[in-house]
User: Which sequence fits this backbone?
């Protein structure tokens, strides 16, 4: 009889323990949801053809090297930055970029420069190809301004074209675009940011499309140098 009671007590205790564990499991905090990841799209899909000029055939002999953009402090991570009250930078808790803005922007810069048709080749630096001109850029801001409605995405890019050999600055300009957000959330800011990036890269393409005209002097210098070393 004692063995029967012992087994019964053990079974009851085990069942109670199991039920207790199940009940406690329901009280445990749920694991956090993975953040939504967003990317910058190719801006050339909807770019206006009128923004890209017919290249000069002589100037199109030049090769352009595009460097990975530098980023101002606060914009060098995958965080999607928003500003409610300047100068404080905040970031969305459940939304991120798939990569840093600089890494996402690099292939877009190369594509934008290729779209001008103004260069014999456009390469991403570092490259084994010898470039005549280099494009240096810096992301000054890529943010969602969520102050007074409507909120706006803002993208500011500083660009400098440099003669690879002499390090002489050929052209330098700062571009800025602000686009209204359709919604007051991270997704709305991302969509608006993509449009702001498209606008800036289209303007940059015009600047770089003109640069090879200045680069004629580079070509003439190269020819003069080659002629001077001939016997």
Assistant:
């Amino acid at each position: 009889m004692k063995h029967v009671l012992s087994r019964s007590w053990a079974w009851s205790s085990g069942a109670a323990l199991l039920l207790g564990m199940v009940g406690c499991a329901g009280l445990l905090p749920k694991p956090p949801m993975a953040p939504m990841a967003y990317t910058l799209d190719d801006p050339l899909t909807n770019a206006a053809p009128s923004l890209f000029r017919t290249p000069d055939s002589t100037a199109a002999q030049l090769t352009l090297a595009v460097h990975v953009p530098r980023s101002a402090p606060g914009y060098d991570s995958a965080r999607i930055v928003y500003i409610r009250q300047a100068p404080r930078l905040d970031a969305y808790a459940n939304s991120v970029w798939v990569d840093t803005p600089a890494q996402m922007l690099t292939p877009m810069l190369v594509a934008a420069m290729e779209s001008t048709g103004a260069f014999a080749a456009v390469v991403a630096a570092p490259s084994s190809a010898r470039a005549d001109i280099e494009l240096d850029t810096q992301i000054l801001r890529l943010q969602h301004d969520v102050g007074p409605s409507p909120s706006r995405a803002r993208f500011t890019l500083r660009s400098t074209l440099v003669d690879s050999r002499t390090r002489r600055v050929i052209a330098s300009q700062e571009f800025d675009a602000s686009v209204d957000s359709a919604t007051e959330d991270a997704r709305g800011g991302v969509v608006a940011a993509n449009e702001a990036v498209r606008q800036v890269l289209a303007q940059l393409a015009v600047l770089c499309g003109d640069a090879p005209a200045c680069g004629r002097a580079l070509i003439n210098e190269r020819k003069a140098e080659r002629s001077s070393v001939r016997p």
